[in-house]
């Protein structure tokens, strides 16, 4: 297809932080302090304890306590350092699932598509199932029915005990995995309501499911009202699933609990630091640390954990989030929304999540008018306008062949974090050109 050679690529697909948002000055300070202080660099350059660099565990626990305000402080023992949310997901599956006994992975759909590969690698190919989103974030009735059916099938097949991953003193094998990004979902930006979170915890307890929530965008939040004061969103706007599991109906039903929080510094410092954390019950966090690769290699990301610890313990990261990331992402989000209002809403496009009081994360999920297919818009926007966006189909649960499977041809994802600020409006304007040309030529 014809492309005007002068049009520069505008990338509204890539889910990376813009380079201007990387905290290079604070990191320079952090690395030079760490590498010139023997008490920091010596452990930093050795194999780390299985649970991770102790000061970072403690400082993460304090920082989470001040943001989420659970009834009791987050203890250091609830935290295990990871190599980021993706790496940690793989470790959790190695320790807490069995490729035969664990029946299904239930993924809220549309889903963070790259998680599918991690589940496939763990032996769940063709056993991933999509659970639709609804106004409160996850269709709990659908999930309950599907869990019932899966259990009936397991009983009929005689699937009563793990075959490959035997439970060890530090682990248990769950029958189901429920995977979601409960706050500012990638791609839909939805936040699961507190009521729904409670229902989800009860269901997980009833069906022996582990809820894995990628809580990677929680700190990047702002009011949807462009005139509202940012001080209204200094604390988390909803309790995490892991916090609800800690207290609901008297607390976890066993020492491992039914929910874990998968945290990451990728969106707060930079993906290259490959450092994150997992929070769960103390026994659960210890279980993750006993993944064979951590026992052999020590905690992942041991050296970078010392750098990140400097950022967290000095408050440099908290200041970066508050004074740089949130104002920048808020402005970027508003810029894309105003471009959508000017160029796409008149054509019948809609952004459902904009009605939430608090919005955040990296992505806008844009619903298309019924006469435009996401795959066509995505392909033609690139070919004709040199604009990259994420086609809805990318966010399907890969390998789910069930009746209810959705194709998401009615939506696309736009990322406002990566592209230069000055190009954001133009990117959406060009998308409007493509949409108009599809509508006229139909
Ligand atoms: C929902 C979600 N989970 C996990 C990740 C990857 O996190 P990490 O870089 O910590 O592996 C991303 C990155 O886009 C994401 O959006």
UniProtKB/TrEMBL annotation:
Q: Which residues form the Aminotransferase class I/classII large domain?
A: 43-418
Q: Which UniProt keywords apply?
A: Aminotransferase, Transferase
**Superkingdom:** Eukaryota
Q: Recorded GO terms, molecular function?
A: 2-aminoadipate transaminase activity; pyridoxal phosphate binding
The record's Pfam families line, in alphabetical order, gives: Aminotran_1_2 (PF00155)
Q: What is this protein called?
A: Aminotransferase
UniProt organism field? Talaromyces proteolyticus
